[in-house]
């Protein structure tokens, strides 16, 4: 039985819930690092603004396809002229799967099959 202002014999007084707003955190939780993508050599996507020996190889291969890379310059820079040549190659040979003017896996496979040494 309950009496006003008293407590029931045999029961514990109510316990207040902890205040989560002032509870101290256990410390920062470290998130796992995302896996590093391993890109096989020779399959890196090349796009406008890139430069280097892989771009030079792309320029050289495109210059072997008649009327695709009309500039024919091999300087290792992925500029507007090279972007247009890659887009032209993609259009003429019906390549799908890569962004227009970007030398991705689908474009690479097709170009390399046409210009293998």
What does this entry look like structurally?
The model is unreliable at 34-41 (pLDDT under 50). The chain has helices spanning 53-63, 80-92, 105-114. The protein is 29% helix and 0% strand. The chain has three helices and no strands. It has a domain at 53-112. The protein has 117 residues and is mainly α. This is Peptidoglycan-binding protein. Residues 51-109 form the Peptidoglycan binding-like domain.
Which characteristics define this entry?
single chain; 117 residues; mainly alpha; 3 helices; elongated
Number of strands: 0
The helix/strand order is HHH
The helix-and-strand class reads: mainly alpha
Quote the average pLDDT: 81
Tally of individual helices? 3
Span from first to last CA? 97 Å
Which value, in Å, is the CA radius of gyration?
32 Å
What are the SSEs and their pairings?
Blueprint: H1 53-63, H2 80-92, H3 105-114
Question: Can you summarize this structure?
Answer:
This protein is mainly alpha-helical and 117 residues long. It contains three helices and no strands.
């Amino acid at each position: 039985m309950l009496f006003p202002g008293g407590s029931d014999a045999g029961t514990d007084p109510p316990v207040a819930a902890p205040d989560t707003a002032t509870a101290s955190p256990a410390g920062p939780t470290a998130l796992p690092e995302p896996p590093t993508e391993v890109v096989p050599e020779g399959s890196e996507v090349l796009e406008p603004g890139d430069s280097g020996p892989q771009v030079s190889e792309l320029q050289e291969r495109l210059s072997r396809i008649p009327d695709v890379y009309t500039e024919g310059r091999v300087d290792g820079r992925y500029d507007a002229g090279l972007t247009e040549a890659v887009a032209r190659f993609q259009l003429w040979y019906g390549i799908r799967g890569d962004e227009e003017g970007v030398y991705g896996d689908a474009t690479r496979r097709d170009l390399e099959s046409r210009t293998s040494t």
